Amino acid sequence: MKIIGIADTTFARFDMASAAINELERTGTGFRIERYTVPGVKDLPVACKILIEERKCDIVLALGMPGPMEKDKMCAHEASTGLIRAQLMTNKHIIEVFVHMDEAKDDKELAFLSDSRTREHAINVYDLLFRPEKLRRNAGTGQRQGFADAGPIRSR
Ligand SMILES: Cc1nc2c(=O)[nH]c(=O)nc-2n(C[C@H](O)[C@H](O)[C@H](O)CO)c1C
């Protein structure tokens, strides 16, 4: 039985963890979920490391929502470097799902983007654990999570 960690925040305006859990459960079986909610993105690195080292997660989804201000973007960058370090310290994937509030034109689009990016990365997490060949098949095809895929390009 694999264990999938989900770390989320109270700062986020959308319940990304529930979307991830719903998507994982409709994608397949063979895993259970450990959820850990913290105040914001800068608290995610240690939450993910605890999920991996203490709650024995095989992989973690880190769900956050950086605000639109410069200080929010600084926070997101600091959180991202922390998440990369946590991955290297533990040798486990932590898939960062950040939805920046200024990516969306209004609350409706922000909710759509939060839901779709989270669900698409939840499937990436499932694939990394159970179906790595599916990722290989999609190499170089311009996959995107949230908005439309960019699609592949060809030299001729
Ligand atoms: C400025 C700022 N911006 C954000 C943000 O855009 N998104 C977010 O999730 N959290 C933010 N935080 C809070 C920090 O991530 C963290 O929760 C606090 O500094 C407490 O450790 C802060 C302090």
UniProtKB/TrEMBL annotation:
Keywords for the protein's UniProt record, in alphabetical order: Riboflavin biosynthesis, Transferase
Metabolic or biological pathway: Cofactor biosynthesis; riboflavin biosynthesis; riboflavin from 2-hydroxy-3-oxobutyl phosphate and 5-amino-6-(D-ribitylamino)uracil: step 2/2
Pfam short name (any one): DMRL_synthase
Stored CDD domains: Riboflavin_synthase_archaeal (cd09210)
Enzyme Commission number(s) of this protein: 2.5.1.9
The UniProt record lists the keyword Membrane: no
Transferase recorded as keyword: yes
CC per GO annotation: riboflavin synthase complex
GO BP: any one term: riboflavin biosynthetic process
A GO molecular function held by the record: riboflavin synthase activity
Catalytic activity: 2 6,7-dimethyl-8-(1-D-ribityl)lumazine + H(+) = 5-amino-6-(D-ribitylamino)uracil + riboflavin
Enzyme class (EC, first level): transferase
Family according to the record: Belongs to the DMRL synthase family.
Name of protein: Riboflavin synthase
Originating species: Candidatus Methanoplasma termitum
Chain's gene name: ribC
